[in-house]
Amino acid sequence: MEDSEALGFEHMGLDPRLLQAVTDMGWSRPTLIQEKAIPLALEGKDLLARARTGSGKTAAYAIPMLQLLLHRKATGPVVEQAVRGLVLVPTKELARQAQSMIQQLATYCARDVRVANVSAAEDSASQRAMLMEKPDVVVGTPSRILSHLQQDSLKLRDSLELLVVDEADLLFSFGFEEELKSLLCHLPRIYQAFLMSATFNEDVQALKELVLHNPVTLKLQESQLPGPDQLQQFQVVCETEEDKFLLLYALLKLSLIRGKSLLFVNTLERSYRLRLFLEQFSIPTCVLNGELPLRSRCHIISQFNQGFYDCVIATDAEVLGAPVKGKRRGRGPKGDKASDPEAGVARGIDFHHVSAVLNFDLPPTPEAYIHRAGRTARANNPGIVLTFVLPPEQSHLGKIEELLSGENRGPILLPYQFRMEEIEGFRYRCRDAMRSVTKQAIREARLKEIKEELLHSEKLKTYFEDNPRDLQLLRHDLPLHPAVVKPHLGHVPDYLESEVPEPTAQLQAQRKEIQTHSQALLRLLGLSGAEHIVEHRLPPFMDRQGSGAYCTA
Asked: Any idea where the Helicase C-terminal domain is (predicted)?
């Protein structure tokens, strides 16, 4: 497509109710993918669109879908209420997110357009009752949609007009190939379809052949991640596995990384090993675990977004093992199970205002790196990605950087010049903590958390619906304590702290102001003495003036 003058939402012929919703959401102008995709979709064309994570792909299909449904109801003949839009996503969390976005855009036309999510936590009977009302748009994973089609609680052959496949490049790797092929047999011969993806791979090409008819391909000329003025990307070489734990301890305990952080590892076992290690030093974290109920996972993300805690440890389904083809189960390294293939978190999930992504384990593929890094520097906010790499992994990291750089041969992942000798005094403490985190301790921690979360999810579900304030007190970063806890490790002695450069006077003033604000807020909420519940951090990134001895990148 040739470049044309930028279009605003008001020039796209959208329903005034949609324009009002867009204004309420604070969108002054469309993103590049929205600017190109919405007019083509409104012309009735099939679309194959590639745009990076965080570029606004969900709204790029939700806005034209709502516009076409509203236009049909306003101008077409009166027809029976039926499901006319179907949105397929690879995970339950993404289904919840897509539903939320569509409902926000339909705020002023909610009576005319109803949206249902069949991948939510309700039982099958509740979902069937919801589908009997024939919502205009249904959102769900292929397996859940297919189940309702086979039970005849959802019928699409005579009514479907719009099909959306979101995060298309993940559907096959999540094991939905057979379900998707079976699902397509229940659809009419003619319908408009959109395939939205962050990458174009063989799976997307296969989906294109299955779903699209003479599509327009939008391969936007934009980098896969924001530029260096918005997203800073660093690598730090750690000589040993112990060095990785030591460096992470220093970054978090000495507040060299500020703001909300996501820590990515490659297996669930590693998630709990890292959490139990940090717990030894009174550094609260929580694990986003696909074994937990959906309600619990969504609650973790919600509390993280509200600032209840600043650090989440996560894996993503793609790094639990090689992409599975046509299978619903997979095993990753060291026998970790991908217990719920619909529970991935590396892509698409909206973690708000993430200041830093720390790749504690090196992503196995360039795509996995892009998907993880896409959790920060969203919506014009700044962010940082720091990747820990062992010497044998440097060649693999070089391949990732080569893909990221494209035609621009300049360095993408800058060296993070951390002087390890400055924190050698902490090594014995880290070594002591690492010895405490045994395989048995990890198994006990996983079992304990699953039991507690199941209790919260089942027995307290009704109570929390009636008492939402009490739900805020249900935290996911409380100590697990299956390892031998040594209280002295949570305190940094003066003789060690003296080696760390003092923060500037300005930084000290900021800290005092934030601490005062936090305490006042807690008193207002009646939570005096629970300072750990609300913790405000300083602005993101390292303070270069206050930590110059550690970072000279």
From this structure: 230-424
Cα–Cα distance for residue pair 165/169, rounded to 1 Å: 9
Q: Are strands 47-50 and 192-197 parallel, antiparallel or unpaired?
A: parallel
**If you average pLDDT over every residue of the chain, what do you get?**
80
Judge if pTM exceeds 0.70.
no
* Residue with tokens 């609260």, as numbered in its chain: 284
Which of 533, 510, 517 is CA-nearest to residue 255? Answer: 510
Q: Which domain holds residue 375?
A: 231-438+491-498
Q: Which residue has the higher pLDDT, 281 or 318?
A: 281
Write out the DSSP string of 42-109.
HTT--EEEE--TTS-HHHHHHHHHHHHHHHHHHHSPP------EEEE-SSHHHHHHHHHHHHHHTGGG
Residues 235 and 310 in one domain: yes
Q: If we measure between CA atoms, which residue out of 271, 259, 290, 237 comes closest to residue 92? A: 290
If asked whether residues 125 and 274 sit together in one domain, one would say no
The domain boundary, picked from 165, 186, 219, lies at: 219
Position 195 in a domain:
yes
Predicted pLDDT of residue 502: 54
Residue with the larger pLDDT of the pair 453 and 353: 353
Task: Give the integer Cα–Cα distance in Å for 70 and 65.
Answer: 9
Residue 85: pLDDT band (50, 70, 90) is very high
